[in-house]
Amino acid sequence: MKTNVINTPNMNKAKVRTNEATFFMSGATQNNEEISKLLNNKNYYIHTYGCQANVRDEETMRGLLENVGMTQTDSPETSDVIIINTCAVRENAEDKVYGEIGNLKRLRKINKDLVLAICGCMVEQPEILERMMNTFPEVNLYFGTHEIYQLTSLICETITSKERLVSIESKQGEVIEDLPCRRNNEFKAYINIMYGCNKFCTYCIVPYTRGKERSRRFNDVMKEVDELVALGYQEITFLGQNVNAYGKDLDEGHDFADVLEEAAKRGVPRIRFTTSHPWDFSLKMIDVIAKYPNIMKFIHLPVQSGNSEILKLMGRRYTREDYLNLVKTMRERIPGLSLSTDIIVGFPNETEEQFNDTLSLVDIVGYEAAFTFIYSPRRGTPAARMKDEVPYSEKSRRFKELVKHLEVSISKDALSMVGKIYDVLVDGVSKTDENMYSGYTENNKLVHFKASKEDIGKIIPVRILESHTYSLIGEKVNG
Length: 479
Ligand code: 5AD
Ligand code: SF4
Prior knowledge:
- The chain is α/β, with parallel strands linked by helices.
- The protein is built from 15 helices and 22 strands.
- Strands 1-8-7-6-5-3-4 form a 7-stranded parallel β-sheet, sandwiched between helices.
- The longest helix has 25 residues, at 392-416.
- The mean pLDDT is 96.
- Bound molecules: 5'-deoxyadenosine (5AD) and iron/sulfur cluster.
- 5'-deoxyadenosine is lined by residues 89-90, 203-204, 302, 304, 342, 344, 373, 375-376, 378.
- 5'-deoxyadenosine binds at residues 89-90, 203-204, 302, 304, 342, 344, 373, 375-376, 378.
């Protein structure tokens, strides 16, 4: 098959950061007869890996595809278009994607006209794209995170040209307000408040795959808040790689605290946000979170390491002491606060002593939840060029020890909830037990309980009866 290359990724271009304007009208929803004629009534299947930014991108893609008359299916076998939306943050996420493409490629033999598309963060990396193109001739469309708005025309081009199409441009990226969205959930919604990242932590690929930090205009965010409130949404999560940098690139005079406060006043029942960088978490934000009962007292505050030297090598811009001081202030000013974090073990040449600092920080903070990772070198990042003497077996041992430490505070927190009543937003039938329903408390604990279909999407009081490390069992409180 011939390949039509419109653009390929380039790590040097991906690093560039300037102040150039970012607002852009895509015209993506304007009626295009040719596209609608070709795609109307076709089926699509989409599988998303990775973080909430990818999930939100999936919702945009669904919006674009359904806008031209396509229908989502949950079976790749009956789909005309298959999209795999990938994650590049660690190697194990990538391996799953290779496995899935390996499984799907047989469908090319059954359906010669199939569009098998790969998008998301993996294809933003030149070596990975090359490897995929060599390994999987069955894939006939690659597009990047910045090309999503062109999705329907790229699919049409692939179908009509019968060529393999590659359109991935490494660039700083835009803010596009005229894209449709078909949300995955009817009562919980994500709102992007900003895109990209300028932090360039030395281990992380995200600033290269998602462009520069760029904020949406305050009024555009609030318009989306109002729409969701009017539709009866119970929970909004503000999204950004680093939400507390919101507004710094605009001259509107609004910061993230203003976003939280204004949304709280507009009556969203539950407000969450992720992710916060400890470096620019302001006192103003802490006080707004404390002040409004509809802002959940749950903060995801990735620490990554408890050792100041490692933090410096990671490019994190804060020391162990800075972080602990911030946590102290947060706990003092926000009663009932739950904290969660991300931690990487085995950063290049991390010593036993430095690792022990992470363990002691974990013990001091007493996290209520955590995500833990073994360092995974990402090609093109500064950390990937560091020579690393620590064997993987040692990293793996440290990882298990870290999890044990974390589980102490997580279990203690869960146990402290037993006997008390918490408001739970009911998600639906439990994934682990079909006789139970499940949902999350305000402090983001998963609870399983008996309820009925009518409770789905409602916030109901649940008494906690039993605690496990990662979930709770409760009973609905009537009246
Ligand atoms: N290796 C391991 N973990 C990583 N993360 C980001 N990059 C890497 C990497 N190269 C983790 C960080 C981040 C979370 C989303 O993923 O902890 O906060
Ligand atoms: Fe990656 Fe650091 Fe940006 Fe988070 S803040 S996305 S870890 S570079």
